[in-house]
Amino acid sequence: MKAFTINRYSKKEKLQLSEVTIPAIKENDVLVQVDAAGVNLLDSLIKNGDFKLFLPYKFPLTLGHDVAGIVTKVGSHVRKFKVGDAVYARPSDYSIGSFAEFISFNENDAALKPKKITMEEAASLPLVGLTAWQSLIEIAKLKSGQKVFIQAGSGGVGTFAIQLAKHVGAFVATTTSDANTALVQSLGADLVIDYKKEDFSTKLKDYDVVLHSNRDPKVLDQSLRILKPGGHLISLVGPPTPEFAKELDLPWYLKFITKVLSSGVKKKAKKLGVNYSFLFMKADGHQLNEIRSLVEAGKIRPVVDKIFAFKKTNDAMTYIESGRAKGKVVIKISER
């Protein structure tokens, strides 16, 4: 089968279109013929080697963290799916590889594809949907009437998180450029701040939750200060925490490193009487089933910016790296 692979970590080298073996399946795995694959900044960060300490992949490595497609083979212990099922998933770490014609992964990572949306739309949902769900529902336990600040509202996670927060009944503030104001308002944002002209820290106060995705240390400090006592900031960009290291079962020295890296922000949070968490999203087919129900009920709609042909996968990566995407970027793999 054809797949886009890398043979080493590199910021300069492009993905290589290669001929590789169709992946084998274990007893709890499904083999999926890929119709479409979502593209995420995480793919670029892994290619660059930014996560090599925490996720030491073997080469050659096929990238791609989002998939929608058709089950073509099931392992002997698989009970949730059958051949012919349309599914979508964010495969677990070390099972990634959706920039390919086929991919295999554990059945617990997948859910049936939401009805009445395309494969491309379905492929846009898993990683950002699970990130928003695990941040707002699992960690923050966001409730109706609370106030949440979602940074970068027009991005992949932002467009999903705004809709999820509104479904819960929260008041949503977000940042974006003036060009994307109408988009985030259409998704339900109550207060939109043009980050190019306005300072969110002067406009927001006593928020319950911040979904943090800006790498500027100043923005992290300001975000902690807009929280009410007992509020919670969940960061998608770090610094990572010892809790994260423990969850990944990392070696002791990496646990120590995360303790050092996060000590400053944890001290600030404690002094302010607020909470700080770092999220590195995990695969979860059960949560994808919950998301499927919301999509089918019309509570959440996919936001797809561009769809690239399989042969243009490197162009899709370049577009993601530009930071200009509104919602998600998707690669169409199968021509059926």
From TrEMBL:
| GO MF term list | oxidoreductase activity
Organism superkingdom: Bacteria
Listed Gene3D superfamilies: Medium-chain alcohol dehydrogenases, catalytic domain, NAD(P)-binding Rossmann-like Domain
Q: Where are the transmembrane segments?
A: none
Domain Enoyl reductase (ER) positions: 10-331
Q: Does the entry feature the keyword Zinc-finger, yes or no?
A: no
Keyword entries, A-Z: Oxidoreductase
| The enzyme's E.C. designation | 1.-.-.-
Q: Does the keyword Oxidoreductase apply?
A: yes
Protein name listed in UniProt: NADP-dependent oxidoreductase
Organism encoding this protein: Ohtaekwangia kribbensis
